[in-house]
Write a structure and sequence with these properties.
The chain is α/β, with parallel strands linked by helices and 169 residues long. It has five helices and six strands.
């Protein structure tokens, strides 16, 4: 069974979690990056204004082409940081580029102040396009809590999602 972790990480938290999960379940990773020609989200406090505004308006910025084809995988694990209670805009773009019909998906997000409605919104999008969500989980930012405990929980969650899909195939 093939598993692909598709994620966006503005500050490295989602990347660290996706890499840990992928290593544990022998999955592959695909980072979603803004297209180099697209307007970047600044660092520091300005990221909350620019990134948050894009998230609230449900913007879909240009992203670099995906190097891996999600169609070749049995399970797609999609991860993103929560921005103003919403999906990070680069993931919103990637979400629209994946053919979800007949696909299994597991969704995770990372937050500092609360998960918002982004898991519910993304699950509705995936299922509305013929996909099936086998798991959805929200994790606290690695700098806000016990990072090792969060990683351990995430690895267990990912393994459970993989096992669910494997048992059905």
């Amino acid at each position: 069974m093939r598993t692909l972790f598709v994620f966006h990480s503005h500050e490295g938290n989602c990347r660290a979690l996706a890499v840990a999960m992928a290593a544990a379940v022998r999955g592959e990773i695909q980072e979603v990056l803004r297209d180099p020609g697209a307007k970047p989200v600044p660092g520091g406090g300005a990221k909350y204004l620019v990134g948050g505004w894009e998230a609230l308006l449900k913007k879909e910025p240009a992203i670099s082409p995906l190097e891996r084809d999600p169609a070749a995988y049995d399970l797609i694990v999609l991860g993103w940081p929560v921005w103003f209670g919403r999906v990070a805009p680069p993931i919103r773009t990637a979400l629209r580029q994946i053919a979800w019909s007949g696909k299994s998906a597991a969704l995770f997000n990372m937050h500092r102040g609360g998960p918002g409605g982004s898991l519910r919104e993304t699950a509705a999008y995936v299922t509305g396009r013929g996909g099936r969500v086998v798991g959805a989980e929200s994790f606290v930012d690695l700098r806000r809590g016990d990072a090792e405990k969060t990683k351990t929980g995430a690895v267990k969650w990912a393994a459970d999602c993989v096992a669910r899909v494997a048992a059905e195939s």
